[in-house]
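Let us practice reading a record.
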Amino acid sequence: MTTGNKFLNYSGDLMLGALVPVHRKGQLGTDCGVIQLQDGVQTLEAMLYTVGMVNRDPHLLPGIKLGLLAYDSCNNPTHALEQSLDFVKGFISHLNVFHEDPDFTCPSGSPAVFRGGADQVVAIIGGLSSAVTIQLATLMHMFKVPQVSYMSTSPALSDRMTYPYFFRTVPSDLHQAHAMLGLLRRLGWTYVSMVYTDTEYGRHGWELLSNLAANYSVCIASPAHRLDKEYFTDDEAAGVVLNLNATEAKIVVVFSESFHSSVITLLRKARDMHVLEKFTLVFSDLWPDKFIERPDETWQPKLLEGSICVHPVSRTINGFDEYFRALKLDHERVNPWWRELWQDFFGCRDEDNPKGHCNDPRATVASLNDIRGSREDLQQARYLHFVRDAIWAVAQALTDLHRDRCHGEPGLCPAMRHIQGSTLRDYLKRVKFNDVNNQPFTFQNGRDGPPRYSVLNYHHDDDAAEPGKYLWHPVGDYTMSQDESGPALHVNSSKIRSRGDAPLQSSTCTPVCEAGHIRTRVRDACCWRCRRCGEFQVRHNDWTCEDCLPGHRPTANHQECVKVPEEHIGYSHPWAIAAMAVASFGLVATVLVSMVFWTHRDTPVIKAAGRELSALLLVAELASFLVTFVMVAPPSSTTCGLTRFSLGFCFTMSYAAVLTKTNRIARIFNQCPGAGPKKARYTSPGSQLVITALLTSVEALINLAWLAYEPADVRDHFPSRDVRQRICAGLDDTSYLVGLAYPLVLIGLCVVYAVKTRKCPGGFNETRHIAFTTYTVTIIWLAFVPLYLASTSTAIRTVTLAMSLSLSGLVQLSCLFCPKVYIVMLKPEKNTKEVVMMSTCHRTHGSTGTLPAHHLTTNPLMKARHEARSPCASELGSDMSRAITASLADHDEESSCHGH
């Protein structure tokens, strides 16, 4: 269908130009389609109604009549440019008249003028779609004519450099994107699919939503579906439906102009494939309550049931409904498209009946209000107040300009006959007036309308007289907050109804993670799954876990790390009790042995053992057992220092005494008999104690230097992530073994001297005992040291050291003291000088038996000869027999202690 060269000319002193989509965009190669009521004729009538209000207002343009020159854009950018050519001619004509040297003149010499009112146009109102408006804004820039749109929302139009003469009374889609994303977030719809048309409006809408979605934690399923063809086929629609159905998203955001043909095709295909019920649609533009192009299809409202629309705020122009419904057929004198609308309402065409019964007297005298019962499409379009604001803004700017130029003189003064576009633009930037709700209106950033949106929900009207009637119901808004700090979203979710009144669907790929869980991304960039933090991790933020420090573990909800209870070995520890039991046994045994030695200190066996060194050895054993109680005590600087010092010191004191003792015996009994009786040096008890003290002082100096270099301290030890032990520093490594190096050298020397004294008299011969002691202690340490090194438990390490000390002490007690205690207590007949002095070789070498003790005592010669066999006997101290005479020393029998 074509509209020809029709245009509306409502004459006035100053004219407003307008481009209105009276008809829909055509199909199959045509520029224009069917006539539109709300987006077309009703919008045009709203302009006429507002111009009439301006002309009746005494405060606006006093003495000046505002007129309107309107063309049909058919919502088609190409057709709109063609219709704009008349405006261009008018602009050129106007400049030609007021140019000092006209470019075009008539034969009479007067400037050429384009008739029809276009030369009086001072501003353009329109268009509706962004695609048409962008083409028109580019043209207006060339001629420097202000343009005010009432419904174009593309963010591209906010570019001040590209479109310096553009204004609009609606907000930019940037605000709409914020409103839509805020709504999705408020309703918990964080995973949505996206469909948009391949138009200026649709593409910019998609870009805005995709760029801002992350700020609202909303994820748009990939890919977004672009309806990129004007003639969208069923096969293409089926492919889009299948892709939408393959995702988990139950919400489909449709960024498209109202009633776009490709979107209608997509919705019908989804219905035919029985998947439409699975989705809730969120539109960026308001769709009509009924698809008036095919009123016979009663199912059509079902396509939109449960849908939500975020649309520029819906308000009504007071008095417009009465004005519009009272119009009759004779209104075609003003509106050239009125008859076509009239015929559409009556359902008749003049070409259908040569008599033209649309000219029936009943029809000519009727108004639209009279046929309202048959058609219900007369309700006021929800955005007409933006049309009113656009015209009112220009009228107010012209009024302000008139006040400044005409100085209160009514009518069109000479200074107002030529208005430059740049001047009117500056007045428009500063314009202020009240909208239809008596709220202050001013252009945001000097060009955009303030953010004003309504949130609408499409469902049946319970209060309607006709059952099953579907309408858009307001459920919220997105407007400036009262403190003017910015726009705020208000939604009453309880009023929102889904398809079939079912509960609102859930649409998310981002579940709410429980305490102690974090998000891990899957598939789409902003989708996630929940993953529990590790056993020793806490939730740092939504996406990462953080390890707890050693000795800490997370709380039950993995929100924070707390210290694990401190562990340390103490007197109540089972291992400590076992070690103390062994040490206590050793203490009791040591005390008993000490009592025996003290009681029988003057007997030969005790004397031969060396009373002073034996006493020192018993003190060392006693200290070894006592150290256990220090080692298993709760760690402190004092106990740690005592443990490190005593561990090697007790061993050193024990084996220094044994070494001194074996060295003394070896030096006495291994003298050569040919040299005569010669007393060995440093064999007195005092000398022995000094030697032992010197040997022991070496270990004391080592330990003191060690403690000075690395002072004893207590620290935390973490054998595992959830264990925190309080230990002495060094217990968890091999440094404690430093103090045992020197005692091991003394043990080796003891073995050497034990072997050298193996032929000495029985009372002095402790080779077997010392050797057995040394071997046993070595085995103990070979068993316990690897256990110490391999163990990660500081409790076991502590008990290992304590037990090794105790067992070593028990071995020494058993091997070195128990045989003598046995003789003293149970074999007193062997506790004599004769038996003590008896040579081992006389018992085992060169004789058939051992001389009885009474024979030695009754036969002085035999006694002397026996004593002569030990020429060094005089060196045994005052408690032994006197020194053997030199003559007896020349006895032909070789000393039994020499060289065998």
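A brief commentary: Residues 292-296, 353-357, 672-677, 839-900 have pLDDT under 50 and may be disordered.
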